[in-house]
Amino acid sequence: MLNWQWRNFEGIEYMTIPQWEEQGAPMLFAGRHAGNSTEPYSSLNMALHVGDEDKNVLENRKHVMKIFGSEINNMVCCEQVHGSGVAVVDKIHQGRGALDYSAALAGFDAMITNKSGLFLSLFFADCFPIFLFDPVKKAIAMVHSGWKGTIKKIVINAVESMKREYKVNPVDIQGFIGPGILRCCFEISDQLAESVNQEFPEFDEILSNNNGQYSWDLARTNYNLLLSAGLPGENILVSDLCTKCHNDKFFSYRAEAGKTGRMAAIIGLK
Fold this sequence. Notes:
It contains 6 helices and 15 strands. By secondary structure, it is an alpha+beta fold. The protein has a single domain (5-182, 236-268), classed as CNF1/YfiH-like putative cysteine hydrolases (4-Layer Sandwich), CATH 3.60.140.
């Protein structure tokens, strides 16, 4: 059975899945501390597009990549536009977006690869990081799924892309839905709640209504989407950590009124 654990590297606290590491797919989701960035990005901000000084972000990225025994130029980043596009990453994309945000893969919110030595890297502050790993075909995906990506079913697009490009069988794919803003803190408008009901009529208990105020369970929605894509339930691990509730450990866009840093979610193949 899959499980995640906290580890510490030179002060950086990060989540990882030991079973994946043993099978050749090292990954992490880093907390917000032990970096070089100053307020309001303190301190392990990993994103180049939020207003932080580039030199601080690049030092943070170099530090985090040491966890893998790797370097910053092995990262691959995409633009993250809250869409549903999935980039197929090859060796020619090595280093894209690692040093310069304008060089990130434009128009994408998810990446897949079966090439070793590349580290698919995305950045988060309340949206959900979704990691996918097929230990049979040795293929991986890294997905950015906020509410817009969820309603566009980006995680299904990622699974379908893995099937098409690498001939994976969904029953072999393992998934990890990392920390994000949970139902307890994700209140939405009546209009958006209606859209959720229309998009996911078959999903029970993803919306709650407390005295007329709707809340949406994005983690459960993405779990259900993975099930519908063919992943067995026992292959899907879901974090129970809310980034807004645990703003001491994680950056949270909602808790910090939009002016904050981003955590890194990274996965690669040995």
